[in-house]
Amino acid sequence: MIHSSIAIQVLPVQERAYSTAEIVRIVDAVIAYIAATGLRYEVGPFETTVEGPFGQLIEIIRRANEICIEEGADQVYCYVKISHAPGKAILTIDEKITKHKHEA
Predict the structure, then answer these.
(1) Which residues, listed in sequence order, are joined to residue 84 by a DSSP beta bridge?
(2) Residue 37, CB half-sphere, CA atoms under 13 Å: how many?
(3) pTM
């Protein structure tokens, strides 16, 4: 039973202008970290959704910001949505999106 999920978008910022490739490289480092947690996640065009234990999700938010800085960002804008219902099941990623998936 899933009790918590987050949707996280990191936007690394640096004083000098970033190339799109540099932004993607930093965001990809965050996504690689999320993948390494072993939690269920789904990458979307604006954010990555992750479901799992609440404490671990909060740690992902913290670590995602640190990774951006470690990878060269001077500042990070981090947009987060949290769904948390202790003792009660919430809709999973699959329950929310499976009926909407289509092949391009």
Answers:
(1) 4
(2) 21
(3) 0.92
